[in-house]
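Help needed: design a sequence for this.
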């Protein structure tokens, strides 16, 4: 369910030491966690729950204060629920629901390509003047005007594209394939968060 190879290439480029984790008990061994994802948020949640990762992630982030970055479906999993594929609950770091983007506004789905992120102040964007990133998705977090909604993107409808609260971060876009801007954002996550 994750875009592992592109992410590995980006982290290698940044010379960030990392480890892929398949044992939920090992999450607490790390200061920073990335939860990548492509595909169905419902399927991703079900797999994480069955393998024991949902509880391990909650413990690592909420109790041990490990930093986490959710990417695309990884960010969607941080919401309260998703309506994708019949729906499921989410990890619940944020109260936002994940809804399908509306097709009736003259847009194509999935939303694919570079788009701008309008941001509030966020450590993730330190050193970035222009905030264009690569998106591939048909579902996104609804905006509830929460103070943790650090970025909004307009694709003929507005949706939350960045969340940030204390040690919890998420991007609807894929920084690992967003060229220089994405590399800066990933570097900021590891060095400034």
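Sure. Designed sequence:
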């Amino acid at each position: 369910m994750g875009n592992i190879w592109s992410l590995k290439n980006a982290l290698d480029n940044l010379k960030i030491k990392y480890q892929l984790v398949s044992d939920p008990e090992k999450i607490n061994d790390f200061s920073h966690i990335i939860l990548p994802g492509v595909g169905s948020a419902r399927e991703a949640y079900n797999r994480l729950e069955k393998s024991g990762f949902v509880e391990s992630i909650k413990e690592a982030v909420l109790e041990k204060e490990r930093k986490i970055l959710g990417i695309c479906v990884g960010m969607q999993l941080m919401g309260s629920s998703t309506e994708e594929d019949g729906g499921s609950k989410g990890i619940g770091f944020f109260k936002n629901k994940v809804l399908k983007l509306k097709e009736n506004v003259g847009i194509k789905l999935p939303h694919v390509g570079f788009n701008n992120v309008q941001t509030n102040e966020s450590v993730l964007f330190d050193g970035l003047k222009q905030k264009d990133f690569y998106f591939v998705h048909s579902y996104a977090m609804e905006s509830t005007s929460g103070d943790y909604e650090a970025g909004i993107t307009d694709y003929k409808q507005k949706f939350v594209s960045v969340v940030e609260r204390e040690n919890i971060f998420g991007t609807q876009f894929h920084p690992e394939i967003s060229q220089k801007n994405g590399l800066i954002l990933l570097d900021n996550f590891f060095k400034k968060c």
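DSSP finds five helices and twelve strands in the chain.
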